[in-house]
Prior knowledge:
mainly alpha, about 80% helix, elongated
Amino acid sequence: MTTADHPGSSLRRFVAQLVKFGAVGAVGFVVNLVVFNALMLTLLKDAPHRTLIATAIATLVAIAVNWVGNRYWAFAGGRQQNTAREGLEFFLVSLAGMAIPLLCVWVSHYLLGFQSLLADNIANNGVGLALGMVFRFAFYRWWVFSPQRAERARVRSESVRIQQVKAKALAGAPDGGFVGD
């Protein structure tokens, strides 16, 4: 059993990744908090449904910030070669995760009638982001930035490259790659 295969090292890698994800999330939280409150107190001050709109905009800005941090730091080992596909998958998971704080804000604001800025912040940035964090970590780790997926893509790419080299070598053979001509 190598050091990399040791169960303790697997747990350490998981914990390290979780801590990095948490640090990136903390930056995203601050971005979300600042954007949300800035919108609530300025541009959307008198807008109808301002809480939901501010939540959506703030979350989208935080998603962009979090993608960079997660791609290049927290999940760097599982980064995909196809950046556009990875970005799209990250965005889809993040949008699904965005539904969680939106639902929390909607329940708090419209169903329970808590309509203060403090209540909106607790629903959005407390309960909603905490639940959304668990959802996003799971999907980022096991789908978007999965080391197994990245390895399978690398193996497929290498296999295609080998086939192309073989085909080129056969085409350059005196018989054009046809045996018995």
